[in-house]
Amino acid sequence: MTYAQDISRCLEETIGSGGIGRDALDAALEKTGPVLDGLRARHEDGTLPLLRLPGRSDDLETCRQAVETLLRGARDVVVFGTGGSSLGGQALVQLAGWRTPGPAALPGAEERYLHFFDNLDGPSLQAALKRFDLKTTRFIVISKSGNTPETLVQTLAALEALKAAGLEWNLAQHLLAVTEPGDGERNALRRLMTYHDVPVLEHDPKIGGRYSVLSAVGVLPALVAGLDVEALRMGAADVLAPILEGHPPGNVAPAVGAAVNLALAEERDVNAVVMMPYADRLRLFSSWFVQLWAESLGKNGGGSLPVAAAGPVDQHSILQLFLDGPADKLFNIVSWPSAGEGPRVPAELRNDSLVGYLAGRAVGDLTDCQQRATAETLARRGRPVRVIALERLDERSLGALLMHFMLETIIMGGLMGVDPFDQPAVEESKVLTREYLAMM
């Protein structure tokens, strides 16, 4: 396994009354058994295609060929999509250095830039379309249903900009779409792309947006960023294997995680879950987790509030509240072996009264100590802390991390008695939006 999960600081025997007893944990773990049986059955009959993705490779070559074609002559690559059609891709490409401090161009690429337009803002889109050299700009458009209004209006605006730039004759070189199969009678994006002879990759309608990171939705941006997508899926397969092999719940890391969440909610009224990785390249993983957890489990008056945090920067902002505020949160510290990484402070400063303690240390040494210190300090305050320690920070470990939390979320939904794949309350807002547009 590419990571180790340590729940010892969630237990009463370690942190006192803020933790759960072994009996409560065992009882919660036992409840996961039928859910795991259900996952094995759905893998067997193919009714949950997410579980088949880690073992697939046939679709990756299709994605690779589409990206190679799209990138010919490209300088800027724009991804249109919102929610699950964007957050997973962003979490993946950050592993390659996207939106981390430093140069903006993708590593290894000759002046190639990647942009995600996941929020709808008229002035921002207008300014960007004017700023881009559209001859060297490519657009990846992602909408599972093909009817997401934010994505449609962005795509229509881009099409008009390309036409105004005299590029209508070559739209197939500038755009690539991902949407569900079917005809254009119910899928506006597919109809639009078919009309303009733009290539479309099929998205399985049984893979929901927030669970789509390992599909073409995430694979396309990952390939643009030069990531090893086969390794991503291998990491996911590592996590799924114990479930498919019928291991007991105590040996299935996502089941253990779900059991801890359930027991803390029921026994200690924990109603918030903090995701706090200690790496720039995992900050958007936290944002991906927030949508996954909130949209899957926040139903029927239940659910816990997910909070995206980052270490060590948030030690200087919200850690005070975490340590001394309400004791109603489970903390997830995602660590990695950062010791020895990065620039090193000159050893000759060891006698300096102010910075001598840093002499000879690498930047990663400080981060390593901070991630361990934060977990221990929270535990000493009686706050439940789970530590997920990555063996390394690469594609395989990130694939494992993503699959762990997708499975943990699905299992948690089963324990709570809610459907982790729908979002019925959100649909009301979408209906009202269309009604308000009709009245303008």
Task: Name the poorly predicted regions.
Answer: none
Radius of gyration: 23 Å
For the secondary structure, the number of strands is: 10
CATH class categorisation of the largest domain: Alpha Beta
Strand order of the largest sheet: 1-10-9-7-8
Assign the CATH architecture of the largest domain: 3-Layer(aba) Sandwich
Q: Can you tell me the CATH superfamily of the largest domain?
A: Glucose-6-phosphate isomerase like protein, domain 1
- Looking at CATH, which topology of the largest domain would you report? Rossmann fold
Query: SSE order in H/E notation?
Result: EHHHEHEHEHHEHEHHHEHEHEHEHH
Estimate the mean pLDDT confidence: 95
- Give the end-to-end Cα distance, rounded to a whole number of Å: 55 Å
Helix content: 40-55%
Structural class: alpha/beta
Total helical segments: 16
Shape: globular
**Beta-strand share of residues:** 5-15%
Organism: Kaustia mangrovi
InterPro entries: G6P_Isomerase (IPR001672), Phosphoglucose_isomerase_CS (IPR018189), SIS_dom (IPR001347), SIS_dom_sf (IPR046348), SIS_PGI_1 (IPR035476), SIS_PGI_2 (IPR035482)
Catalytic activity: alpha-D-glucose 6-phosphate = beta-D-fructose 6-phosphate
GO molecular function, one term: monosaccharide binding
